[in-house]
Amino acid sequence: MNAKIKIDCGKPSEHIVNPYLFGHFVEDIRDHMEAMLAFPLKDMDFESESETKKAVSGNWSPFTNGRNTEYALEAPAPRHSGRAQRIRVLSDDEAYAGIAQKAALKGPMTYKVKLVARASIELKYVFVEAVDRRSDESLGRVRVELASHNWKEYEADLAVARACSASEIRLYVPAEHPRWIDHVSTGMLWIDHLSLLPADNIGLVKREVVEMTRDLNAGMMRLAGNYISAYHWEHGVGPALERPVMYNEAWGGWTSKYFGTDEFIRFCRELQVEPLICVNDGSGTPEEAAQWVEYCNGGIDTPMGARRAANGHPEPYDVRYWEIGNEVWGQWQVGTCSANRFAERCASFAKAMKAADPSLVLLACGHTDQEWNETVLDLAGEHFDYLTLHLYHGYGRFGMNRDTPPEERYKAMAAYSEWTRRDLHETKARILANPKHAHVKIAITEYNTMYYPNTIRKGLPEEHTLGAAAANAANLNEMLRCSDMVQIGSFSDLVNGWLGGCIRVGDYYADQYRGKEPGWSGFPLTVYGTPTYEVMKLYANRDIRRMLPVETVCGSFSIQANKPTPIQLDALPDLDVAACANEDGSVVTVFIVNRSLQEVNTELNLDAFQATGETILHEITGNSADDINSVFEPNLIGCTSRIVPAADWQRGYALRPSSIYALEIKAQA
């Protein structure tokens, strides 16, 4: 198959491509925080219900050879959340007694142990030990002296000799501990908190995650998602152990109290990206949102600014971008409401937040339903700067399911950007229909491929394939073509999470309820990027500022949908092409997605541009559209770069099926 691409380099766009277009998104959903944060232990505050006959919290298990060791869950230390784990060691047993939890540990590595405990006065010390649970080999042990009958925080360094994916952390009173004569109030140990943190963490986040995210050059990082509509920001600031343990009403389980506002800002600063925070418009109030703004941006002479300073951050965070409402049109959302009601709430939130900081840039919850957008724009459009869209195109739009032939399913996925184009053009027209809100731009604050139309995915890794990466690249091309209006993008999610994240930690795929046990592969510590990670990194790290006109003549494909669709599905172009120039026009970058399952021989012609004799070609490809990266082959799909003579493009260069390219062409000096 043959194709011709013609680019007019003499007509750069007047608008500038916003680097925030290549942003990312963190949410407290499923295992996102668990995978992202560096703590190897769960249930560190003993918040969960017992899963055994013994009264031992959640992920912990009894560790004792005593016949009479007693376990109970009690109230925590003062000002602390969760519960305290009580262990009673009876002297007559002369046994070891404590608790244990499975974990995957790096090594050699030093872990900072934090323990909050109190004990009967005859208990003088405990051990914290890491062992290989397959062989019971000790990987490291530290003795913690118990210095008080009252609650006290202890810290120690645990040196772990080697990495072990099947380790176990044990905290226990050893059998050789001197015994006591049994009577009332003896042999009792209370544990309020136990955590381990590897020395290589960066702001509590896994070093590998930070380094991989830094390479994404994201521009912007969004804190939001369904959970935010039941999230009260005050629960996530101040001393971590004094933050309340809160149930995650959107996704189940416990919210991560260890990644609140201050930690999120530190994460953004570490990455040198702009933070975007979504406020609680579901169960929260305008006053609460305004206080959050003041906490982030207020001087130390303001009540919330003083509170931030007391938490160790005297300088304002200067968070400019704030989002009001996350999918509040959805029945799954806390505080779901009509468009009229949301417009009223949006206006009241915007007024309160702008009163706290008039310089804010505000985003308001939009929809692919243009009736919703019309109402929100007409009633509240003067109060915000961006209307948001969430774009998850799935097989359901085509009437397809798992029984649909694989080639048809792939072609449907490859056409997701056609739906993106329709949604963007309709939203743009709605915004520009009235001068009252014609200033509003578009922010796509969540998007990803979505293979199956419901929320139970049964462990399928399809969202992570090379084909999915091609679909996401085509989505980016569409966002670039519409970048006069679309200025913010947030890929969903950053790490694991719902659709599985572009960064993967361990074994999970995009599975809501039926995933394999963590560590089933033996590689739970493996951190790697999906093919879409490679796409996001490729696009965000190019020197692009302005769009260039493109004409593409190529073959086409058709989709046999099983129900009527509002877009034409016949004669869809095999190639999706977007062209850009840097600020001074000395570099032209051409993004090409071969959406077809055939090789395409492609000629390139540049008007009004004197190119050098060589081009740089970046390629993301594989042997099949179904190829994925996994813990077993984390680098199967990557991005390779090579020099291609300009003459090869004049003769025609072969582009592989279901593959993504970025071609960089420099002007002659």
From TrEMBL:
Homohexamer; trimer of dimers. One of its GO terms (molecular function) is alpha-L-arabinofuranosidase activity. Its EC number is 3.2.1.55. GO terms for biological process: L-arabinose metabolic process; polysaccharide catabolic process. This is non-reducing end alpha-L-arabinofuranosidase. It catalyses: Hydrolysis of terminal non-reducing alpha-L-arabinofuranoside residues in alpha-L-arabinosides. Pfam families: Alpha-L-AF_C, ASD1_dom. The keyword Transit peptide does not apply. Residues 445-659 form the Alpha-L-arabinofuranosidase C-terminal domain. It comes from the Bacteria. It is an enzyme of class 3 (hydrolase).
